[in-house]
Design brief:
With about 600 residues, the chain is of the alpha+beta class. The chain contains 8 helices and 36 strands.
Length: about 600
């Protein structure tokens, strides 16, 4: 067994151990993959809500819906007659009085579902921000922490004939030991922000699978299938009709089977984003997926896609629909954001600074956009808190589990702008990196750093985490937060990792679209011309960067952020967008568009 196969097997064992430890706990279960291919009942739509600004729902037990017994009975809460919110969706954009609210909101949905013999039922959440406490018919199912990854609860035998009551307490208050923590530069949209459904499965179902090319190979698939249920030993098949592939195997007494086969694939790339219809079958279940095949690697100072060098033409995107000023959650939202990235000339989107919804991932893959997926380990994280490394690992596993079969996902980014002086930071993130590579070695791993020195028009690039990263990912805002110290064409670079590719993961500056009759050479003018000049200078500087493998401006659209308080030019928006919050192109947009055409 080669090193990669050994790592893959060990990673699979780690995953299985994790699942066994999660079973039966009061925490949510890690969600099954590919929920859209399952037999599901959508719980999307109108939900009744109670806004709990006094945080009294816990001791008043809002999850118990009281029944009046005597004429003297009354209760000081009720979902009946309460306002309604759309699910999925954030609560901030749906009720004006909640525009900047951070706190507790209680949701209720009444539903009917039939419990069938020899079937299991699961309650699936695409994401809830940030902590969710979930109750069914007055019984607490469990809790989940983390605003951007899916989770589920098994409700087999817990539903009843007739109406069932599902109550979810959502709390988006920031936590000192949360991920992210107290400080971050985007609006903290709260609520049930992604799809909710009930999934019906067989007693033994296909819980998870990994079907991707072995690292470095153009022809050999190396993966696995995991069943969940009492009938663990089953015959399984992986079929790709277009290639006449029917791979057969057998699961062991833990429901696990390795998958190994070869074919002449048409490889996925930005120019040709080929996806195959892949069918995974067991004796009791069938799952259909669209899967592409490609190989990613770093060779010296080059990023290789399908063994050929590729220059990463990226843009940063937040999960916000700029037209609606709301959390992006739908396929239409994804198309709006991703089509704008394609028009700019991108072949990569950095989905900052947390895992985005599954529509974004799948649609980007179909459109030929490589995906940089990131954990919300963003500044000011309390790495020394004993709970934080455990939370980091849980979020990592949930992120990888959902999207590991999406060949468009090229980079797992494990942190952004953390500081080596933070207690336990290096140990925690180095360990997280090792876990990531053990689970999935087929993608690149990055840590984004912004602590490089810049003096005398020279950069000194160093951080311990770069020893464990495939890319040297640098955030730098020369020309905005830091003035130029010389000509952009004469910048010097001391990159202390000369054999690794360098990626400029953020750069730019702010401008208010259409700002006119202002001094165009002063930062305080917030003029398009000032932002445009930053981009011209940055593009000139790119020519001085050794081993440059790609760039990624911050950001595609202006977006909401409470820290941006200038009463005239910001009004609660970060104005670094190449496009305004109404989709208007700023002058800097054309600079990047032309640069990408040349690359």
């Amino acid at each position: 067994m080669n090193v990669f196969k050994d790592n893959l097997f060990r990673g699979s064992v780690i995953v299985l151990f994790w699942l066994l430890n999660m079973a039966g706990s009061s925490h949510a279960q890690t969600a099954m993959v590919n929920d859209q291919s399952r037999h599901l009942i959508s719980l999307n739509g109108k939900w009744n809500v109670m806004v709990d600004q006094g945080n009294v729902g816990g001791w008043k037990k809002f999850w118990i819906e009281p029944k009046l017994q005597k004429k003297t009975d009354f209760f000081e809460y009720s979902f009946d007659g309460a306002p309604e919110l759309n699910v999925p969706g954030d609560f901030n954009s749906q009720m004006c009085e909640l525009s900047f609210y951070e706190g507790s909101v209680w949701y209720r949905k009444l539903f009917n579902v039939a419990q069938k013999k020899d079937k299991r039922l699961f309650l699936y959440f695409g994401a809830v921000n940030y902590i969710a406490d979930v109750y069914l018919n007055g019984e607490k199912l469990g809790s989940h922490e983390g605003g951007f990854t899916p989770f589920q609860f098994e409700i087999t035998g817990k539903v009843k004939d007739g109406s069932n009551s599902l109550i979810v307490n959502v709390d988006n208050r920031r936590l000192e030991n949360g991920l992210p923590g107290y400080g971050y530069d985007w609006l903290n949209y709260g609520g049930i922000t992604r799809d909710v459904s009930i999934i019906e499965t067989a007693n033994t179902y296909i819980e998870d699978y990994f079907i991707q090319l072995e690292k470095g190979s153009l022809n050999d698939v190396l993966g696995w299938i995991q069943l969940n249920g009492g009938q663990a030993e089953q015959k399984i098949k992986v079929k790709i009709p277009e290639l006449n592939i029917v791979y057969k195997s057998q699961t062991n007494n833990s429901g696990f089977a390795r998958v190994e086969f070869s074919s002449r694939f048409k490889l996925w790339s930005p120019e040709s984003p080929k996806l195959y219809n892949v069918i995974v079958e067991s004796e009791t279940d069938t799952i259909v997926d669209e899967i592409g095949f490609r190989t990613l690697d770093v060779q010296g100072d080059k990023v290789l896609l399908n063994r050929k060098p590729i220059f990463l033409k990226g843009v940063n995107i937040h999960e916000e629909n700029p037209m609606k000023k709301a959390r992006a959650y739908s396929l239409d939202d994804a198309k709006l954001l991703l089509n704008s990235a394609k028009e700019l000339g991108c072949n990569l989107v950095r989905l900052a600074h947390y895992p985005h919804n599954e529509y974004m991932i799948k649609e980007a893959e179909k459109m030929g956009l490589m995906i940089w997926s990131e954990l919300p380990i963003y500044q000011n994280i309390q790495f020394a808190d004993s709970l934080v490394p455990k939370k980091m690992e849980t979020m990592l596993r949930e992120m990888i589990r959902r999207d590991k079969n999406r060949c468009g996902v090229a980079i797992w980014s494990l942190s952004n702008e953390t500081y080596s002086s933070t207690p336990n930071r290096n140990k925690a993130l180095i360990n997280l990196t090792k876990i990531c590579k053990a689970i999935d070695s087929t993608r690149l791993v990055s840590h984004v750093i912004n602590t490089q020195g810049y003096t005398n028009n020279s950069f000194n690039v160093w951080d311990t985490l770069y020893n464990y990263s495939d890319l040297i990912a640098i955030n730098q805002y020369i020309g905005w937060y830091i003035p130029w110290q010389g000509k952009p064409s004469e910048v010097k670079w001391k990159v202390n990792f000369p054999d690794k590719p360098v990626f400029i993961s953020e750069f730019g500056g702010e401008a208010l679209y259409g700002n006119k009759d202002v001094p165009t050479d002063e930062a305080s003018s917030w003029s398009e011309e000032y932002q445009e000049q930053i981009y011209k200078n940055q593009v000139e500087m790119f020519g001085t960067i050794p081993n440059l493998c790609g760039v990624c401006p911050w950001i595609l659209f202006d977006y909401k952020s409470l820290g941006r308080m200038h009463p005239v030019n910001q009004k609660g928006f970060n104005r670094k967008g190449l496009l305004s919050d109404k989709g208007e192109k700023k002058k800097a947009w054309y600079i990047m568009n032309e640069y990408y055409k040349r690359k």
